[in-house]
Design brief:
By secondary structure, the chain is an alpha/beta fold. The chain has 10 helices and 8 strands. An 8-stranded mixed sheet has the order 3-2-1-4-7-6-8-5, with helices on both faces.
């Protein structure tokens, strides 16, 4: 018998992508027990589309109108975790398209690893900048410490997640979780043989924003300035430095009780 599992989809105004994402979840060869969509202050048709697609008997749409945490994405994941069922917790960003065997291939790996991420690749069909970005992504392979697991499409052991007190109010929530899991003796993995498609259409503005966010995340995680400079130069990401030095490291706000 397949163990019970939950899929969480954080979403903010994702009407362009949410239908394909949800249908790729509903077409899985191994179906999740529960699907939770966290609609984060959505003002478009995200909720309407999700309501028309998701099966009522095994799904929930959490409408979040107010933000309690400094980092709203982290809060979305924690809200979903509080209502999760089963042994495994899947995170699927609303702009991801999954292969039909995504859950089937990740589930067995949780016997050895506390968290396993799929490899997200930019959809080159979404425009010229997407094609350029998909080529640039190959630089992940030359990262000094090796390519690290990233959020967006991953499976997590709910038992391990509970033992490290869930998701925290931090910007780089995926890296923060991996660090805490490793500190508690768990193993995490990036499965390079399992690929998901990141369908969001890139723009120059969005690309710069991603770099600034990455710099901010590195600062929050305590990564050294020297290592960040090398990263910025080696991987052609100048705005990472701007994000690193512009956003000072700050203390995390107290976590509210969502139960």
């Amino acid at each position: 018998m397949t163990p019970a599992s939950t899929v969480a989809i954080p979403a903010h105004n994702e009407e362009k992508y949410i239908e394909d994402c949800l249908r790729s979840i509903l077409q899985q060869t191994v179906q999740p027990t529960k699907i939770i969509l966290v609609a984060d202050k959505c003002t478009d048709r995200t909720v309407e589309i999700a309501t028309s697609i998701l099966p009522l008997e095994r799904s929930a749409i959490l409408r979040k109108e107010n933000v309690s945490w400094q980092n709203t994405y982290s809060e979305n994941l924690e809200l979903a975790r509080q209502q999760a069922v089963g042994d495994s917790f899947f995170i699927v960003d609303a702009d991801m398209l999954l292969p039909t065997d995504f859950i089937e291939r990740l589930l067995p790996q949780l016997a050895e690893y506390a968290s396993v991420s799929a490899l997200a690749k930019t959809d080159p069909s979404q425009g010229l900048l997407n094609r350029v970005f998909s080529i640039w992504e190959k630089t992940h392979k030359i990262a000094p410490l090796g390519e690290q697991p990233r959020g967006g499409a991953r499976a997590i052991s709910i038992d391990a997640l509970t033992r490290v007190t869930g998701f925290h109010d931090v910007y780089a929530v995926d890296t923060d979780l991996d660090l805490r899991l490793r500190q508690n003796g768990y193993k995490v993995r990036l499965d390079r043989n399992l690929t998901v498609l990141h369908r969001r259409r890139m723009s120059v503005r969005r690309s710069i924003s991603y770099q600034i966010q990455a710099g901010r995340a590195r600062r929050e995680l305590g990564i050294s300035g020297k290592r960040t400079i090398l990263h910025s130069i080696g991987r052609l990401r100048p705005f990472v430095l701007y994000g690193y030095y512009y956003y000072p490291k700050r203390k995390t706000a107290p976590r509210p009780d969502h139960t």
